[in-house]
């Protein structure tokens, strides 16, 4: 299992904003980094005496502290990506292989497309658990093709075998 090494550049590239604050004690700087996925990490730096405080050094040290706290999380993500790639991500494949019935379309559609249609349905009308409870007793048999035409125009193009192969190739290329 090949694990991608995490570098400072990798972490810095995902930072979208940094906010700094000097505490009222006059010697402590806080830094909050926001990453591209919305996750935040906070760092802190202090000097011994307020008269030794240099704002620029405090910001640099607090940022460094926040990055050091974030580093184990990025290492975990790299290991997780390698693990999933190594096992072929069987768990995700089982969800990806799941298909939902469609009235008037014998082969059904990928579960992810079914959930997308359900989200569009809920945005227009009200949630209907019977549309997603396909294994329970309340299933109405999935969407009809005419409903899918309204909810997700072009759905047929997205659920063909070629579209699924393209999506899988893109997923595998992204895991490199």
Summarize the structure.
With 176 residues, the chain is α+β, with helices and mostly antiparallel strands.
Report the portion of residues in β strands.
15-25%
N-to-C terminal Cα separation, in Å?
Answer: 12 Å
Please provide the ordered H/E string of secondary-structure elements.
HEEEHHEEHEHHH
Range of helix content: 40-55%
Largest sheet: 3 strands, antiparallel
Number of strands: 6
Query: How would the global form be characterised?
Result: elongated
Structure description:
It is a single chain. With about 180 residues, this protein is an alpha+beta fold. The chain is about 50% helix and about 20% strand. It has seven helices and six strands. It has helices at about 10-15, 55-85, 90-95, 110-125, 145-150, 155-160, 160-175; strands at about 15-20, 30-35, 40-45, 100-105, 105-110, 145. The strands form two sheets. The chain has a three-stranded antiparallel beta sheet with strand order 1-2-3. A hairpin with a 5-residue loop joins strand 1 (about 15-20) and strand 2 (about 30-35). The mean pLDDT is about 80.
